[in-house]
Write a structure and sequence with these properties.
about 120 residues, alpha+beta, Glutaredoxin, four-stranded mixed beta sheet, about 15% strand
């Protein structure tokens, strides 16, 4: 049995839709609210590797925090982006689903079906 971990913000509509989809399909999964259990640098780097994404690609560009920090007009290293996402979890795209050595940003939620 594969271990499926969903990194989410419980109040997020897409995260709730994903939970509903997985429950309807009878798929067992673990939820992690990364606002209560924040990402570590090592954990976020590992997820980015599994997602095959650079940190900047995981940013929520329509988020108020992104705009307030003027992140579209700055040049930061991958580590600096990772640190920003750890300090400001609103910047992280969600939900992220991790299954073994793969991960996907489940937007739309059906994308999760690609890895489970």
């Amino acid at each position: 049995m594969k271990k499926i971990t969903v990194y989410e913000k419980p109040t997020c509509t897409t995260c709730r839709k994903l939970s509903k989809l997985l429950i309807e399909k009878g798929i067992d999964f673990e939820k992690v609210n990364y606002y209560i259990d924040p990402f570590t640098k090592k954990q976020l780097k590992g997820l980015l590797r599994k997602l095959k994404m650079r940190p900047e690609s995981l940013l929520r560009k329509n988020e108020a925090a992104y705009k307030q920090m003027n992140l579209s007009n700055v040049t930061l290293s991958d580590d600096e982006f990772i640190n920003l996402m750890i300090e400001n979890p609103d910047l992280v795209q969600r939900p992220i689903v991790e299954v073994d050595d793969k991960a996907v940003v489940a937007r739309p939620v059906e994308k999760v079906l690609e890895i489970i």
